[in-house]
Amino acid sequence: VVNSAFTDVMTGLNDRNEEGEYVWVESGEKAKNINWLKGDPNGSPGDGDCARLKFSAREGNTWKFADGGCRDRYNFICE
Question: Domain C-type lectin: where (predicted)?
Answer without folding.
Answer: 1-79
